[in-house]
Amino acid sequence: MTLRLTRPEAGTLIHSPRRYDFWLLLRSLGRERALREQLLDLAGIVPGDRVLDVGCGTGTLALASKRRAGATGHVDAVDPSPEMVARACAKARHARVEVAVHEATAQDLPFPDASFDVVLSTLVLHQLPHDGIHAAAAEMRRVLGPGGRLLVVDIDSGDPGNPRRTPHSHGRFDGRRIAPLLERSGLEVVGSGEVPFRLRRFERLLYVVAVA
After folding, report:
1. Would you identify the CATH topology of the domain 5-211?
2. What number of CA atoms fall less than 13 Å from residue 39's CA on the CB side?
3. Which residues, in sequence order, are bridge partners of residue 105?
4. d(C-alpha 50, C-alpha 46), whole Å
5. Which ranges of the chain have pLDDT less than 70?
6. Is 31 left (phi over 0), alpha (psi -120 to 50) or beta?
7. Where are the domains of the chain?
């Protein structure tokens, strides 16, 4: 299966949301929900949290975040692809879950400083050009409130057990770069490691949790 992609300066944009959902279904062997729950556990979302999902794709993780944040919490989500934003909005309406979805890039988040308690970035950084990775890290740090938590999950193309290159990546991506990058952005790394859930025929996933 081939996803329809473009690679502007903002990063790789995916224009086939239904195909993307089907791709993830295949890669997770139908266990995408288990992956989402693992990620939300790592992020530590609790009722009342203000959450931002950066590069939300079709919105599935944002919707799950809202369920964790509860009625007193608030979830925003951004993605640069208009097709993915439309799909995420449709999912939210269908599920009757209140999530605000915006068309925006990770490098230019449309929110004031210190707006969120939790920021999520899942399979986003490897989609960005080199300069964009640093800009995105700075923006995610900017919108986190004091003590706020950032969860970054991304691929490790340097995994010796699976040397495949992700087709839509801007070159190979070393997930071990994430923690030092976040520290240079003014965050304190409090946890990191390999995501226990592994996608079929895909690089391993690494996570980093950092606090403002």
Report:
1. Rossmann fold (3.40.50)
2. 27
3. none
4. 9
5. 1-15, 21-31, 158-172, 200-202
6. alpha
7. 5-211
